[in-house]
Design brief:
Helices cover about 85% and strands about 0% of the residues. It has about 250 residues and is mostly helical. It has two domains: about 5-85, no CATH class; about 90-250, no CATH class. Helix 8 packs parallel to helix 10 (about 220-235). The longest helix has about 35 residues, at about 90-120.
């Protein structure tokens, strides 16, 4: 039987479902009824994200909803990403991975070079620079939290790094699907690689891929972006020891 501790998450889960349902309705009203398109040119996922940002900042959610919203973010969202990975075929990892891995390595090397220059130019602490760089190159907040103890980062440095990664991640999640479609001329492989390497969090990459898929009817882009991001996440086991070595050597 469900106990009270389990039941407290239900109101927040229902609220998240209601917001997504509202996004579906707004998508149809704006895209089909108002603009007159046969299929809405606006992504439901994008509307849902914007509604979440709006309500989350305008209204103070009561405690009755917070636990369920946190549960949805931490568990149900991750379950969705797992299910997204399950639908991928093994040959897709091989096909996309042979292109993604060299690109990821190039991105990591580029960040290591740039971060050295920025430390001197911007006069920020080495620890904060390393946290921001590993958050950008690997897997966002998870990478920052995993690296912080290794390089002895303080709470302010961790908070600042996470805030940067989150803010720019949200902006890129909303803008990059449309920018990449123009820049890469609708090529699903190139767009998927771009989304998978340029956006920080796994959930943000999945959302950007979903926005692109809904907007431009390209499931291949979503698959490429997901594979690229999952491969990129695996580099965490290499990057943490590397940053620990670089930091300790600098000391």
């Amino acid at each position: 039987m469900l106990n009270k501790q389990n039941l407290v998450v239900i109101p927040g889960i229902i609220l998240a479902f209601v917001l997504y349902t509202l996004s579906e309705g707004l998508n149809n009203i704006i895209g089909i009824e108002l603009l007159g398109y046969e299929k809405s040119p606006i992504s439901t996922a994008m509307i849902a994200i914007l509604l979440g940002i709006f309500f989350g900042n305008i209204f103070q959610f009561r405690d009755i909803f917070l636990q369920g919203l946190n549960f949805t973010q931490k568990h149900i969202l991750k379950l969705g990403i797992i299910l997204l990975g399950i639908q991928l075929k093994p040959f897709e990892f091989l096909e996309f991975g042979k292109v993604a891995i060299p690109l990821i390595i190039i991105c990591i090397i580029s960040v290591l070079i740039v971060i050295k220059l920025l430390i001197k130019k911007l006069k920020i602490s080495t620890r904060m620079a390393y946290l921001i760089s590993i958050g950008c190159t690997v897997c966002g907040t998870t990478a920052i939290m995993a690296t912080a103890p290794v390089i002895k980062a303080n709470k302010n440095e961790v908070s600042y790094a996470i805030a940067n990664i989150t803010i720019f991640g949200i902006i890129s999640m909303l803008i990059y699907p449309y920018f990449s479609n123009i820049y890469f001329d609708g090529d699903p492989m190139l767009i998927g690689l771009f989304l998978g390497t340029a956006i920080h969090e796994t959930s943000q990459v999945a959302a950007a891929g979903l926005i692109y898929d809904q907007q431009f009817n390209s499931p291949e882009t979503l698959n490429v972006a997901t594979v690229t991001k999952l491969i990129r996440n695996s580099f965490l086991i290499v990057m943490i020891p590397l940053f620990a070595f670089l930091y300790n050597r600098g000391q």
